[in-house]
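Troubleshooting log. The previous structure file for this entry was overwritten by mistake, so regenerating from the original sequence record. Sequence copied from the archived sheet and checked twice against the printout by T.R.
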Amino acid sequence: MPALRKYLAEYFSFTRKERTGIITVMVLIILLVFLPFCFPYFLPGKKYDHRQFEKEIAALKIKQPDSGSNRFNNFDENNYQNFYQPSEKNYYGKQSKGELFYFDPNTLPVEGWKRLGIREKTANTIQNYISKGGHFSKPGDIGKIWGLHEDEVNRLLPYVRILQKNNDKYVPAESKEYAKQPERPNYVKTVIDINGADTSSLIALPGIGSKLANRIIAFRDKLGGFYKVEQVAETYALPDSAFQKIKDQLAINNSTVKQLNINTATLEELKAHPYIRYTIANAIIQYRNQHGNFASVSDLKNIMIITGEMYSKIEHYVTIR
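Regenerated output below.
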């Protein structure tokens, strides 16, 4: 037993520094535990004013009275839109469909509106508007009547026939608003000979300006003429969309093109052609120097760099005579 007491005494005995450290740690732990409860005393919370919210709630509970036709009390004949506003009220009442017939809202009396199934209060509002100088200029204007709801407008709109004065004679407004447009004359597209056309003829085509017209003619002159319409699409900077627009208006009345004699033409003459250029022109000259004159145009196929596609273009512009 004395040994145990001695052991416990030694185990739980602390130096002064150790006691100080233990006490400091315990104080820190206690502070950290109770610190969150102290926040409200040092950090005041945000205050909210609920009065405005309560006012808005109270306003929702207030049922607005229907002002009826009193909206016409301050009529201004220079600006009557104050008395001609679309209804913003939701309409849930079941309305009588009434009798449908053609009518002019500018001349229809209250009884006529009631026959159409319109409430008497709305009919009186319309008459009050008319009597103060208001006017419906087109059928769609009835959609702006205060108290006339969307379903009623859609039901009545096909039957509105507004009459308008025209030289002391009344004509239906629909004849002016929905008059059948005169048929456009059928224009026959002008077809031009692309090998004989000048710049003015080309400029007359849709999408072709002076620059494109000059480029087409310059390309035609360098080729020696077109043998098919599709060659026009190869003109520098001519958009394919523009070519497709004018393609049907182009024709070739004279397919004769200027040809180069491959047996006598110089290198300069050959390479100036858009389809031949220097590489092919030089190959033609070298072949001619090695094998003599060409016996036929088809001998060009013997030149390795001339592909079948190239030959199909070149053959129209060369000859051996």
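The radius of gyration is 48 Å. Archived copy saved in two places this time.
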